[in-house]
Amino acid sequence: MSEEITETTESAAPEVTPTSINDLKPKMQLKGTVNRLELYGAFIDLGIGTNALIHISQMGKEHVNRVADVLNVGDEVSVWVDKVDAQRDQVMVTMIPPLDVEWSELDKGQVYGGSVKRLENFGAFIDIGAEREGLVHISELSHNYVKHPSEVLTVGDEVQVQVLGFSKRKRRIDLSIKNLLEKPEGATNEATPEEVHQFEDDIEEDMPTAMELALRQAMGDDMPVRIKKQGGKKKRRRGKRREQQEDILSRTLHAQHNG
Fold first, then answer.
1. Contact call for residues 245 and 215 (beta carbons, < 8 A)
2. Are the beta carbons of 167 and 134 closer than 8 angstroms?
3. Rounded to 5 degrees, what are φ and ψ at 61?
4. What is the mean pLDDT of residues 173-183?
5. Which of 109, 106, 191, 196 is nearest to 142 (CA)?
6. Is the torsion defined by CA of 206, 212, 214, 218 positive or negative?
7. Which of 24, 128, 141, 176 would suit a FRET pair with 75, their CA atoms being 20 to 30 Å apart?
8. In the chain, pLDDT over 90 holds for what percent of residues?
């Protein structure tokens, strides 16, 4: 294992009772009392002499139309610290539980504990507490040959994984279990160029394109997010399929515009 690997087991801090703004840290969980409502949010008394602001967008995962629909003056609420500026005496909090692992906190070589969420022919998806589940490609499951992830993993298993790479733009996290295991003498399980190419295709197919999201919005929620490819299709066939989808989208939007 590389000496640069850093063991990381971050999670939202438990509820504490701070005495000043200098005691606050991002993701710290606190209890407070609502003492003022505004159109844009609410002010929370945390007992530190500085009122914290919770913006209306941070009052829940669902859209909130009015602050008064969620909070009232005098309510006791559980919040998490979002941002702290001690010099300006400003605190921003949220009612949305923070992620254990933010994109900005990811780095190659880091080690996380995670839970196996689903298995596919090409690998296993692991929840490490990030916005997106990470993927352990089948070649990164073991130093020995693995025909299918179910041979070594079961949904619900708790595992240790190492970050191989990530892309916030693609919402993708590549992980390895193999890197944290001692390599048996003579073991070989390296991904072939064909497997890596297939892996890239599988990841691409797992995420909807902007065009497909627009198509779903145009046609209603009955339209599946992703039109799954059939095994063995070549790139030129995927390109033709996308051209057909774009044509459908164009005609659908044109019909709605003239309707």
1. yes
2. no
3. -70, -25
4. 93
5. 191
6. negative
7. 24
8. 50
